[in-house]
Amino acid sequence: MNDDDRCPCLSGDTYGACCARYHRGLPDGVHAPTAEALMRSRYSAFAVGDAAYLWETWHPATRPGELDLDDDAIVWRRLDILRTEKGGPFDDTGVVEFEARYRSGDERGLLHEISDFTREAGRWYYVSGK
Asked: pTM for the complete prediction?
């Protein structure tokens, strides 16, 4: 994905001005300031195939030993944030409910999740989803 392309998270910004800065900032650089920003950047990481970012932003207590995004058939098309609870720059926990639409071949799908996030040492992490 080029920096001038529209960001997959549909923020309205370009990829370079939006999620790419978080994708490129890890492990020691720029981090998402809110749980929602982390959710958007993780969705974009799925869309661009950035498994390293997804793994780094997954809380160490719940993340898998490795993460493989080998399904090139899935194309992520749209992210809708339905609600957030807490997750601001001064909170330590947050919840983001979202729907993510995708295509796989001729089929269309919808992922609906309520995700839990935690902030440790000023950095947000994805914990789990229902």
From this structure: 0.93
